[in-house]
Amino acid sequence: MSILLVTSSPRGAASHSTRVATDLAQKLVAADPSNSLVVRDLVAKPLPHIDPDYATGIYTPAEARTPRQAEVVGVSDAVLDELFAADTVILATGFINFNISSTLKSWVDHVARSGKTFAYGEGGPKGLVKGKKVYIVLASGGIYSQGAAVQMDHAVPYLRSVLGFLGMTDIEVIRVEGVGMGADAVTAALAKATAKVDAIAAATTGQVAIAA
Ligand SMILES: Cc1cc2nc3c(=O)[nH]c(=O)nc-3n(C[C@H](O)[C@H](O)[C@H](O)COP(=O)(O)O)c2cc1C
Question: What pLDDT, on a 0 to 100 scale, did the predictor assign at position 207?
């Protein structure tokens, strides 16, 4: 299994999403020594915002691109290569102003490519990224999985929509939520998320054992 871990928190070592997502990635790797892990840290190495050279370059044949178009489309190509090479994708993000982090949004912008990850045909749009398991690890100050603030969660519905549009429909969400509500809430949120990580890792180990 090839695992791609994408981290995007602006909070560095204090990030709960990075911590839980890394824990998941490491436990999945440990489940089978043949598993591999690629980490894309979108804060250490931010992807450029898409710009006019990108928006025109992706619709220009490779041999006709200007050097600048080739450069920015090349960034997207590299990100796409990583995505297509992965069986399992772990996306880690903090809940920032009611949505995903802007660095992860840039990743989405580079990944959503007409003719590469989606296409329009007679039957309408078709996602071209198939067979991936996706885990979303979302850390938030408030609670958005239930209660009055559910409608303010523009992160999980957005990611489910855009990833689903690209063909990635097997999505599991791990929330580390309510971390803005005091130390006890942080402890409880991390314990809940870690229990889910352990259950996922155990299920994966079980699958490996059955397959063997
Ligand atoms: C700039 C900024 C904006 C934030 N916006 C929200 C928000 O809209 N709603 C919320 O519940 N928490 C918000 N938070 C709190 C984060 O979701 C929380 O700190 C979470 O742990 C961030 O993820 P991380 O730990 O992976 O960095 C915000 C935090 C920062 C730094």
Answer: 55
Closest among 179, 166, 199, 185 to 138, alpha carbons compared: 179
- The superfamily in CATH containing domain 2-211 is Flavodoxin domain (3.40.50.360)
CA distance 163 to 92: 14
- What is the position in ligand 1's atom list of the atom closest to the CA of 19? 26
Which pLDDT value is given to residue 33? Answer: 82
CB 6 within 8 A of CB 40: yes
What is the distance in A from the centroid of ligand 1 to the CA of 165?
Answer: 26
Using CA atoms, how far residue 78 sits from 70, 86, 105, 134, in Å, is 12, 13, 16, 19
- Ligand 1 first shell, C-beta below 6 A: 9, 11, 15-18, 94-98, 139-142, 179-180
The model carries a pTM of 0.95
Cα(177) to ligand 1 centroid in Å equals 10
